[in-house]
């Protein structure tokens, strides 16, 4: 078992005991009140509770690839980041750098600055560097369609991270593989956590970035799953593009508090970054960091998100991507492409991290992924 998860086993056991006695972690005196209220959706609630219990399990043995081609040496790759202010994108970049060093590759990160112009400029620069592979991280490849087409025509393998709606290979856009958890699973478990924790009675604000198809689809799926519980009300579906979150959050949160007041009991966002910037507005409004609205980030699970969750500072849960692990997977997928082998087909399972089960950790990755990849590569 991962050392940071040993403490989490005890914490998770205590949480189960507390739930059995009618209490909810972090809910304070409101828990007994909620438990006395008839659930708003008995069938959906029962299903949600079972799914959440499974996703909160703390053991994560490696279920990824254990075979593949030996490392091809002397390659170079360029990682184009949507914006390095997105902690998920930045976290995967660090994983790519770490893994590339192991196999002796040159890895360079270019910042797209979160704008179409910046992304196209970064992609043009990447092509001028003549790399063996390019990563499209956190943005729609359609933003740089001409550059993607040029890379394809020049035989440069492209690998996406959250660049297409589904994991695995893509024909349009042409990607060797797209690395991501299944958006359907992440969206569903995020909504199920709200349904389960609220006992089927929640007033929800949902934050999205409609400029990114992957993010918009995720939030649409969260909305769809919330609708399976009649007692869960979607108060607002708020569009805030990720590059604008830092300057718009305070105003949006103040507006939402003014409109909904105590009816706003839960929030979900397509990634954790939203709560980093919402926290100051909630604090200024006199809200308790451990109280309502209880917030869950449907990705990415960067260290700052874990700090908020562990400290009960305006974020109660995250559905983390294994960011470092996915950086290593990107390098492994490139190695397969360079070796004329098929992509691995691996998709990381969903997990929910809370203060009760994180064991104080600041990330979530499968156990033993580094050792598994190093063994494949012959290091």
Overview of the molecule:
- The chain is an alpha/beta fold and 379 residues long.
- It is built from 13 helices and twelve strands.
- It has helices at 3-20, 30-35, 42-55, 87-103, 116-128, 145-153, 183-197, 213-226, 245-260, 273-284, 303-311, 323-338, 369-377, and strands spanning 76-81, 106-111, 133-137, 158-161, 168-170, 175-179, 202-208, 232-239, 266-269, 294-297, 317-318, 353-354.
- It has a six-stranded mixed beta sheet with strand order 2-1-3-4-6-5, with helices on both faces.
- Helix 10 (273-284) links the parallel strand 9 and strand 10.
- Helix 3 (42-55) crosses helix 7 (183-197), helix 5 (116-128) packs parallel to helix 6 and helix 12 (323-338) runs parallel beside helix 13.
- It starts with a helix and ends with a helix.
- Residues 1-35 have low confidence and may be disordered.
Provide key terms for this protein.
single chain, alpha/beta, 6-stranded mixed β-sheet, 44% helix, disordered N terminus, 13 helices, 379 residues
Could you report the average pLDDT, rounded to the nearest whole number? 90
Across the major sheet, the strand order is 2-1-3-4-6-5
Structural class of the secondary elements?
alpha/beta
Q: Please give the largest β-sheet.
A: 6 strands, mixed
**DSSP helix fraction:** 40-55%
| Total of DSSP H or I helical runs spanning 4+ residues | 13
Based on CA atoms alone, the radius of gyration comes out at 21 Å
Low-confidence stretches: 1-35
Taken as a percent bin, the fraction of beta residues is: 5-15%
**Amino-to-carboxy terminus distance:** 24 Å
Strand segment count: 12
- List SSEs in N-to-C order: HHHEHEHEHEEEHEHEHEHEHEHEH
What coarse outline follows from CA principal-axis ratios?
Answer: globular
